[in-house]
Amino acid sequence: MVLLPFFIIGIVFDVAVCLAARWSGWTLAIMAVLMFIAGIIAAIILYFLILSIAALFVDKKKPQEKAVPFYRTGVLYTVGLLNAVFRVRIHTEGFENLPEGRWLYVSNHRSAFDAIAACWAMRKLDVAFIMKPSIMRIPVVGQFLHKACFMDVDRENDREALKTIIRATQFVKKGEMSVAVYPEGTRNKEGKGLLPFRHGAFKIAQRAQVPVVVATVKNSENVVRNFPWRPTDIYLKVCRIITAEEVAQLKTNEISDEARKCMMLEGC
Q1: Does residue 190 carry a pLDDT above 70?
Q2: Bridge-partner residues for 214, per DSSP?
Q3: Poorest-confidence range of 19-23, 137-141, 148-152, 257-261?
Q4: 106 phi-psi bin (left φ>0, alpha ψ -120 to 50, beta other)
Q5: Which of 135-139, 188-192, 208-212 is the least confident region?
Q6: Pairing of the two strands 104-107 and 127-131
Q7: Nearest to residue 178, comparing CAs of 141, 226, 129?
Q8: Sheet of strand 232-242, all strands in order from the earlier edge strand to the far edge
Q9: DSSP structure class, residue 237
Q10: What is the C-alpha separation between 109 and 183, in angstroms, rounded?
Q11: Which residue of 85, 143, 191, 206 is 20 to 30 Å from 174, comparing CA positions?
């Protein structure tokens, strides 16, 4: 439970303050609750202060060759916190069939919580996500994602997009990371069907000669709507694995069409 450390700190802070103040009766009962909450808030502030200090030592202009464990752990733990705070319950299907070695993970795109849920579901694997540049520009967040080998892609600049594809291919080819990307390129705000796929994302699998893991995500668009009144169940399903042999025989657009067809059969 990712919130457990904060609860423990809250309890320790609560007990220490109450014993020092020697409250009793109704005063003790009220202040005990308040100090517990204050302890949790202080712990959260301390956590993000540590992250902020660590971010000061990151030069985003310097290419990252491999993920740094401290920063990757920070990304994963923060993702876990977000899921816990927003009361997200992740259900997975087919992830036990993920191929050995490295691969390209592709999925439909419903909300910002698609990557948050998928990142947490695959936290024991080395997976780097490709995302839009605006996320990488967020202070502290961008620095940690950079050190964890997450990448941004400029959809409006073909030359810069190609650089991201080449970099992602190198990560996969060297065995450093698997890569996850949402080929629709942006969130489908309509919540129905699929937006046109950007075929270029599938060049990563072609160039690295690795399988394509085709997955679907459902119900992630309801997280913000449900918060804070009720939890949200997000369903992640691996519906097909296009083998490396198949990838080698197909054209980029054919791989893209195959992945799209699979997602549509799952009701996306």
Answers
A1: no
A2: 106, 240
A3: 19-23
A4: beta
A5: 188-192
A6: unpaired
A7: 129
A8: 88-93, 232-242, 212-218, 104-107, 178-181, 127-131, 151-152
A9: E
A10: 8
A11: 143
Looking at residue 191, its pLDDT comes to 62
In terms of CATH architecture, what is 69-265?
A: 3-Layer(aba) Sandwich (3.40)
Q: What is the model's pLDDT at position 208? A: 94
Cβ-contact 208, 156 below 8 angstroms: no
Pairing between strand 232-242 and 212-218?
antiparallel
43 is written with which tokens? Answer: 């712990």
Tokens at residue 114, please? Answer: 């698609």
Q: Please give the structure tokens belonging to residue 154.
A: 């400029």
pLDDT digits (tens, 9 = 90+) for 146-174: 999 999 988 777 778 888 999 999 999 99
Q: For 41-80, what is each residue's pLDDT tens digit?
A: 999 999 999 999 999 999 998 988 899 999 999 999 999 9
Q: How far apart are CA 54 and CA 144, in angstroms?
A: 9
Residue 79, exposed/middle/buried by CB under 10 A (0-12, 13-18, 19+)? Answer: buried
Amino acid letter at 3?
L
CA distance 248 to 206: 6
Please say whether the beta carbons of 130 and 152 come within 8 A.
Answer: yes
Per this entry, what is the length of the chain? 268
Cα–Cα distance, 210 to 172 (Å, whole number): 8
Q: Where are the domains of the chain?
A: 4-55, 69-265
Distance separating alpha carbons of residues 88 and 71, to the nearest angstrom: 23
H helix or E strand, kind and range, residue 165: helix 158-173
User: In angstroms, rounded to a whole number, what is the distance separating the alpha carbons of residues 143 and 90?
Assistant: 27
Q: How far is CA 196 from CA 74, 84, 151, 253, in A?
A: 34, 32, 21, 12
- Please tell me which residue, 192 or 217, carries the higher pLDDT value: 217
The whole-number average pLDDT for the span 179-191 is 82
